[in-house]
Each structure stands twice: as C-alpha cells, then as structure tokens.
Amino acid sequence: MLLVATLPWVKTISTQDIYRRMYAVGLAEELSISLLPSIANAAPSVLGAEAIKTVPLTRSSITEFPRIRSLASRGIGSNAYGFGSMATGTNSPLLLGNPHWYLVGPDRFYLAQLTIPGVLNVSGAGFLGSPVVQIGFNDNVAWSHTVSTAERAGFFELQLVQGDPLSYLYDGNILKMKENIITVQVRDSSGALVPVTRTLYKSKHGPMVSNPMLAWNENTAFALRNINRDNFRLWRNWLRWSEAKSLDEFITIQREEAAMPWVNTVAVGRGSSQAWYADIGAVPNISSTQMAQCATEMGKVLIKAGHLPPNTPFLDGSRSTCDWQNDPDSVQLGAIGPNRMPSLLRKDYVANMNNSYWLSNPQAPLTGYPAIFGTSGEEELSLRARMGHVMVQERFSGNDGYPGRNVSSEVIRQMALNSRVFSAERFKTQVLEQVCITPLVSVQRDVLKGELFVPERKVNLTEACTVLRAWDNTGNSDARGAHIWDGFWMRLLIERETQELFTVPFDSADPLNTPRELQANATEILSQALGATVLDLQHSGLSLNAKRGDYLYLTRGGSKVPLYGGCDEIGYFTISCNVNNLYEMDRGDVTSNSYLQVVSFPHDGVEAYVLLVSSLTDDPASPYYSDYTYNYSTKQWHRIPFTESQIKADPNYFSSTIQE
Prior knowledge:
Blueprint: H1 15-26, H2 30-33, H3 36-40, H4 49-53, E1 77-83, H5 85-88, E2 94-101, E3 109-116, E4 120-127, E5 135-137, E6 141-147, E7 153-161, E8 164-170, E9 173-176, E10 178-187, E11 193-202, E12 208-209, E13 220-226, H6 234-242, H7 247-257, E14 263-269, E15 275-278, H8 288-294, H9 297-304, E16 314-316, E17 343-346, E18 349-352, H10 383-397, H11 409-416, H12 422-435, E19 440-446, E20 451-460, H13 462-470, H14 482-496, E21 502-504, E22 516-518, H15 523-540, H16 548-551, E23 553-556, E24 559-562, E25 576-577, E26 591-593, E27 595-600, E28 607-612, H17 627-633, E29 638-639, H18 644-649
Parallel strand pairs: 7-16
Antiparallel strand pairs: 1-2, 1-18, 2-26, 2-27, 3-4, 4-5, 5-6, 6-14, 7-8, 7-13, 8-9, 10-11, 12-13, 14-15, 15-17, 19-20, 21-22, 23-24, 25-26, 27-28, 28-29
Helix pairs in contact: 6-7, 14-15
C-alpha cells in the first residue's frame, strides 16, 4: 500500500521506505549510530602518512578522542518485571514494562492495536513508522524489553597493501574494498537544493570507519561489523509473538528467531506459573581464545582508556581465524546459538534494569555465558538495579507500606512511579552527619562543571542541610530537596572515579547491599560536592526549597505539566533525566519513562493498564496532544480496552483509520 502525499512537504511512502525504517531500528544501538558520520566520511587520510605515523599509540594520546557509548550508558534503558504465581498469589502472572526512551522525534513510542479477526489481536506500543507492536500483549502473552549489555558490533583492524589504501590483506591474499558512490540532495545556506556525493567503502567485514580515533592511513584501516546488518528476522519475531498462544510458544519463537537486536526480553503468559527472562537475540560469536589471540593493541588501548565498552570485540581483520564463528544452532552467520544465551524461568520473579543477565533474580544468579554478554559478578549493580530488586524484596517481606505481601497490578503501578532514590535512602543520613556539623565550607572546585574557584568560594550549607533533612527521599513532583541531592550525588560520582569513598566495597555475595558506608575521612569531598551544588543552584536562580515539579516538567499548550523521578546514576527507579542539565527536562534530548504497561491475565480476559508520557501526537491542535501527559503527571493509569466490546464501550478510546 502507498500513502499518497497531501501536502508539498509530505512525500510518498513506499514499501521500501518501510523496510528501511524497520532496518534502521535494528541498528539503533549507539555503537553504530555514533559512528555514522565516520562511515559516511570514511576515506584514506589526506594529512600525509608521515604526520599520521608520528601519533604514538598510548593512552595519553587518545584521551581527547570521543567516547563510543552504548545506549544504556547514555541513559537509554528500561525497567521490566515479570512475576510468577508464587509472587502474585493467583493463577495469573503479571508484567511491568517500563522502557526509558525519547519523548520526541522519530523514535518515540506510539500506541497501537492491530486486529485481524480470527488471526491477530495485539495491543501495545512501537516506534513511529513501525508496522508492528514491539512492546505489548495479546490474549495470552505480554512482553517488554530492556537495553542489553551484550555488544552487537565490533571492529576489525585491516592491514593495507602498500601503495594501495583501498586494498587489504586477508590470509595473505589481497582483497579490494567495494566502493558505493551515493549522491543526495542537500539544502544549502541559501535554501537551494544541491547535490552532495560520498563514496562509501566496505570490506568483507563491514563498512569502513575513519575518524581521529580510528585513522585510515597508509598502513591501517578499520571496519565495523554489526550483527544486525544481517538480521532481517526481528519484525517476523515481533509479529509471531503477537500471535503467540502461550508462554511456551513465545519462548520457542524467541529461540527459533534469535532476532532481538539490542534488548533483553521479559515475558509472562496466561496459565503459566512462571515468568521468563532472556537475552536471546543477534549477538556476535567470538570465543575467549579469539579475544585473547586476535585482540589488537589499538583495541586494548581504546578499551583501557574507556573509549569503548570493555566487551567490545576489536580483532585482527587480516586472519580468517579471527572471524566471528558459528555454533551448530546459530540462526545467522557469525552469531551465538540460542543454547549459549542467558535465560531464566522463575515462579517468583525475573527482572532487568539494564544490568547484565547475571542478577535477573538475586536468588538464582546466572553465570558462565560468553563475555560479550557482559559481566557476571565482577562489577557492582547500578543503583537503579539495586533499587528495583530491593523494592521486590520489601514487597515479599511486607515492609514497603503496601497491603499484604503479594504482587498485584495496583501495587506494581504504584511502585513503578514512586520515585524512590536509592542513594538517598542508603547514604543521606551519613552524609548529613558528616557534612552539616560544620556548615561553613570553602569550595575550591566544581567537578561537575569543570570549574576551579580562585579565590575559594565561601558557602553556608545550613539551608541545604535543613532542606535535605526534611526531604522524603523521593523525586515526586511535590518533593523539596531532590535537586540538591541530585547535584551532590552526580559530583560525588565524579570524585569516585579517582578516590575510594566506601568502607565496604562491592561483594558479589551481597550485591544489593554493597558497596556501602561512606568513608569517615571523606568529609572534605562530601562538603566540596554539596557546596558546589549550592553555588550552582544559587547561580541558576533555583531555590534550595523548590518543588520537583517547579523545574522538572513538560510544556503542553503553554502550560507546565509537572513530572517526577530522576536519573539512573543517582538511583531513581522512576526515570526523568537530562544528564546535561539536572534542572531541565523540557527538551528533546532527555530520556524518560515513555510507554508503561502493567498486564495480567485474570480468568475473564486481559487486564492492562498503560501510560504514554509523550501522549499520542505532537500536534498541539489535537486533543490527544497532552491527555496522557497529564494522566502521567497525576499518576492516573488508563485501563485500556482490548476486546471489541470493551473498545466500543469506552467513550475515551482513541482510534484512527487511514483511507487508501
């Protein structure tokens, strides 16, 4: 079907356009996206070989190069819980899907229900332009995703043929790079369309990349291979899930397709007592032997300097023994087979808050999987992950203030939006005890802003201490003091890069409670961090006693809609975050709770509650521009109708049709 353009700036959408959109989703992981300019502009260096060869290969020589970061390290992530019958105390499992994503732009979520009578009936959310439901539910299964720690791409370092920078050696043979000349129309400064031409280069491993960090000189060049460039199964996978009749069928589909591009999966199903977690998808197959024998010095330096995630493959591209391998059950070339990918079924619960597969359930740690999936007990959990698991433990013990000990839809809906702050719950009392005894502090620097104060700035911490003592340790819209703690903790995290701040270090045997207890001799560091935060807030004009919703909001129709939550790094479970400006959310580059769903399967149908923070449209003239945003602000979940009779009975149900 073609959609016919009705305005001059609206172009006809073809089937090929839809496929391009679908393909781009698979490559959304930041390792590829951050390198797109390096792919588009890759070419042999014109600086001269001698100039390039004078750059020493040391850590200090690359400290100014840009970091290549994963989606999760940029705040893109999610929370997901799957609860089995042991947790719910009923015959129905329960799922929380809570992706943290963009609120504007082409990748924001929209709500959809797709129905083909007798064949398909699925509800949920997908990216704009996606023809399928990516996170959702049908009559029998519900699922959600979180960004995985498994690397989906890697580099190959090529040895070039002397005198020919477009040819490289592979097992002693000379291979020629493929050239693809592309011309596109670009609007120049005068508004006129002018042609711009690029030649894209490709090796057998993948497209060539070139930038100051990965220089293409007369001897060496670099290629990027992304496993999802050859993964054309994910849309079929989502469509098959939309038709699944049970959790068992859902799991079978995931193993058969192994298609998930850069996400974990959490799912539950009608009639099943268990909940499912899996990081089963398209993942490069590199053995530990290859990582040891094929890793290049350049790759080691970049990883050690923190410019690449530690499990990034950076291999010698001149030897076939360094190529990605195959398993007997590999679904595509160069991919790990599903039998060697992490998964877990539990009657109590499974969860993922963008930590690795290791602690999908603290009572059943997963270990022994290939290193490319991430760590398993070697690194501490994020504060958000600790918060997420601790909330479940408190629920099971009945110590969270909610009735009983079982997990219900109502309780989970409250937990998801409670805006608790793990760092404050665990460390605020000790911080105030150490810092507020001597409230007058001489601030020497602001590590978050990169400022050095000469002369030192005198700051009185009395008001900040008073506000923090009264603060309820949440990021709710009426909370006063959260912004002080946010600024303080972000500065403390920077200090922690060079100094040990905790008395009890991380212990894999006690991952939810370590590290803990601030060092007694850390008082000066704590005072500097809090003092710099007070100075920053004074400079911004934001009151120390400001309510969260006064500065954390979205604008709809000229009105401020208060938000709540905070940043992952600080330990908020509920996410509303702009790491570049902690006191501003109403921008396009923030990450936040986006689409949320809580789904269960009572005997009489499907019970699904949803929220969509951005609302259904970005057209200010539409009545659907702000309705869900206001509902989210007031924590009013929408019991979404699912069956035809429920839809017809709901006067507020939004639907639209496209005329051919």
